[in-house]
Amino acid sequence: MQHRILVLGAGYTGAFAAGRLARRLHPEDVAVTLVNAEPDFVERVRMHQVAAGQDLKPRPFADMFAGTGVELKLAKVTAVDADAKTVAVTTANGTETLRYDTLVYALGSGWNAQGVPGAAEHAFEIASRPGALKLRDRLARMDAGQTITVVGGGLTGVEAATEFAEARPDLKVALVARGGLGDWVSPKGQRHLRKVFAKLGITVHEHTEVAEVRPDAVVTAGGAEIPSAATVWTAGFAVHPIAAATTMDTTDRGQIVVDRDMASVSHPDVFAVGDAGYAIGDAGKPLRMSCASGIPMAQVAADAITARLTGAKAGRAPLAYFQQCVSLGRKEGLIQFVTADDRARSASIRGRFAAGYKELICKGAAWGAANPTYGAPTRRRRTATPAPNRTTTKALA
To answer: What is the pLDDT of residues 364-382, one digit of tens each?
Structure first.
């Protein structure tokens, strides 16, 4: 009987994990099923570009995983029973229950309104493709001189504000940040951000808390009103709520607590990768929600699963940071080099070269997801436990 591996979510981490498992394990011994609600891969790190009116290359999963041995199931996950090892899903034909022997949980995260009054009702989000397309339609209908206000001074907010300002110079663009502009990068990086923001004419409201979002304005904690014909909320992410509803050990934010192999500390047959997993990096600090964390987590999980099933020794990818790549429109960028625990170093790359550097990073991440079994070995590993019609239990290298 085949060992059933179920991968939930086909973002960067889920797609990467499924592809790596498929190229490392023998299809006679293992069945890898990838469950996702949408039929196409979403380049989440580019959703601000989609909102600004740019079109991305289509990446259908049917093409991505053709011939890989990965079975794609289009379905929405509604519940996980980690004790019974089942997953409830909804498909176009109704509800189903899927069973697994090993689960890779990669459902990721969505936007988080942080409980701010009016944010859920009146703000736009760009953490998903539907959200980005909805904002794209709104921007297309905005008149010259109107203001689009981005709430959130992190990487997503900075990228969104500069993208909108460059794409729509006829609009006024404002950024509301709880801290200082780019206070998470080096002094040189901060100066570059201010230079680019000034060049693009972006108004920055630093050290400002948002108390309310209205249809036509953002209200600060101090009572000031910032006019806003469209408000974009980028102030944090919330993980998918399904994990918190299970018996698995999770954090207050709903992330699954995992060990160094990305296995759940309470249910070792469940591996959590990407934003869904609470993992400690090599520097001893929790990994932040990001693609930079998710891909190494997926590699560690896939290799640990392979080792567990085949008896081979698992290599461990490093869980440490090296850089933060920030696009500032299509012509400017910032590459901030960081320590292993994600603190800014003095070194950075700025300007047009940095923009090209960031573009290569984005293309590489998308290419890796779209070519999940590139470099597949000619002989995949056999499981250590005999399968039907097998005459050997030896694990092949």
So the answer is: 888 877 776 665 454 577 8
